[in-house]
Amino acid sequence: MILISKKLTGSENYASWKRSMQIALSAKNKLVIVTGDFLAPEDKSPLFPHWKSVNDMVITWILNTVADDISSSMNYMDSAYNVWYELNERFSVISGHKIYETQRDLFKLEQGNDSVEFYFHKLKGFWDEIKALEPTIKCTCGAIKVWEQQVEKTRLIQFLMGLHSSFTAARGQLLMMQP
């Protein structure tokens, strides 16, 4: 059974593949197998056969969603946690180049002949990818609210910048408004 339609091909699509797998495994109530929160019981435990069955199923789901050249090197691993950990170690390295490419593509994006909805969908995809690539900010001082407002303002400006020229009048009116 294939859990998600995306195939992991390398570090270039690891973040989106991982997120899709996390959602799918969570929906199946199996995410704890790969996170290590539900480790194997003792071999002699009556729970071991059930754990082994679930673990093997999760390994199969993972290997069915990675490229053949990647999965062939993991066929003999006997723990879904180890497979997940190995993939993370191998492909989660976020290079400055990937962040650069995503930011560049975001700033070059324009609506063109696309509908506003489709243009916004593409824009949001870039925002979500950047959010996944950048480390999460942990804040308990309350300044995170101000930062989130600044991010939303920046996103609004990015959206307006890429709109088709037929929206020039509407863009001008929106920019003159006080929030």
Assembly type of the chains comes to single chain
Which strand-content bin applies to the residues? under 5%
Q: How many individual helices?
A: 9
**N-end to C-end Cα span:** 50 Å
Q: What is the rounded Rg? A: 21 Å
Helix fraction by DSSP (H/I, runs of at least 4): 55-70%
Structure description:
The mean pLDDT is 90. This protein is mainly alpha-helical and 179 residues long. The longest helix is centred in the last third of the chain and has 20 residues, at 143-162. The protein has two domains: 14-91, no CATH class; 96-176, no CATH class. It has helices at residues 14-27, 31-35, 48-63, 68-71, 80-91, 96-108, 116-133, 143-162, 168-176. Helix 6 (96-108) packs antiparallel against helix 7 (116-133).
Concise structural overview:
This protein has 179 residues and is mostly helical.
List the helices and strands and how they pair.
Layout: H1 14-27, H2 31-35, H3 48-63, H4 68-71, H5 80-91, H6 96-108, H7 116-133, H8 143-162, H9 168-176
Keywords:
mainly alpha, 9 helices, single chain, 179 residues
